[in-house]
Amino acid sequence: MQFAIVTGESRGLGEAIAKDFMEYGIDVIGVSRSGSEELKKFSKNEKADYHHYSCDLSDSAQAKECFEKIAEQHFNKETYHIYLINNAGMIEPIETVGNLDTEQVTKHVQVNLVAPIVWTNSLLSYAETHDVKLTMVNITSGAAEKSTPGWSTYNSTKAAINQFTATVAAELETKDSDHQILAYSPGVMDTDMQDVIRSAPKEAFHDVEKFRQLKEEGQLRDPDTVSAVLMDLLNKPNDIENGKVYKLYDLIKE
Predict the structure, then answer these.
(1) What does the sequence similarity comment in the record state about its family (predicted)?
(2) Which is the catalytic residue, given 50, 83, 126, 154?
(3) Mean pLDDT, 10 residues at a time, over the chain (254 residues)?
């Protein structure tokens, strides 16, 4: 039996990824503050189930407890493959350093960085005592390689998640493990996060007009397209380079 744990599955890319897994007959376990009615309806027409677990990913203790509950209620001796898609993320605070809100920064780091580390750690710990293959995907961003005024927190957490991915891969290699971990950079998509970006004031986000223009010119990809590219990659496990950051634009060119 296979499961796909998808954080932030209630909308956007997470919802699209969850649908794709169910179309492949893989049960989806969604983790977010609110579930998706769309996924509930969708699962009724597929050969896979959708289970939602309510969890505030800004609370690392709650995230760990949520995983333990999932493992207890779903994983068993018939489970042979688990996917973990660390998709949940936030862009806020969009603000220049010196004007950042401390509470927002703390929540951002918890959701974008600490939660993926906690979930990955929990899953690998589980795998140490169970014969289960793991495939772990961290959703990252091109922002990890940039210094964007107003995005200091976002740039930093995405750079950190890339380095975390590479480090876990290096550790797996030293153990001669067959588990896989990669990062996936989806480019700019037409999601709620883009709405937040476009609504930022110019003084907080210098490049805001560029993102408004992308929307006006129809240059934002839809989440379904982005998810399909990721699924194509996951369907070729022998071609996956452990620890690599895969960028949508490069995969499309290939």
Answers:
(1) Belongs to the short-chain dehydrogenases/reductases (SDR) family.
(2) 154
(3) 96 96 97 92 91 94 92 92 97 96 97 96 91 96 95 97 98 96 93 83 85 82 96 96 96 76
